[in-house]
Design a protein that fits this description.
Layout (H helix, E strand, L loop, with lengths): L1 E9 L4 H15 L5 E8 L6 E8 L2 H7 L3 H12 L2 E5 L12 E3 L11
Antiparallel strand pairs: 1-3, 1-4, 1-5, 2-3
Amino acid sequence: MLIVAGTINVDPADVPQLRAAAALMMAATHQEPGNIEYVFSVSVADPGNVQIFEIWESADDLEKHFTLPHMATFQATLKELTITGRSPASLRSRLVRTHVMQVTPIPCTVDRM
């Protein structure tokens, strides 16, 4: 399992366009094999800061994600926006760095009162 977390910083005036593109991207990505979670969240404190959180079953599933048509459409939309920062700057080049963690699920029970 892989967990990916990152941010895109955009001009706040571009947030509505990013929000629309992200909604389409999320809907399509949720249908991909191996996708467990895929979420974009706009910061309340800084409306130009958009967090991305993903969970994938495998690195292969994540790599395939980069090749799909909805990713190309989303990337084209990003080119139209004023991007002021990203973290990680390039996910594909940083798959083995700290922004992506490989985790092994541990079974547990929760005692709910």
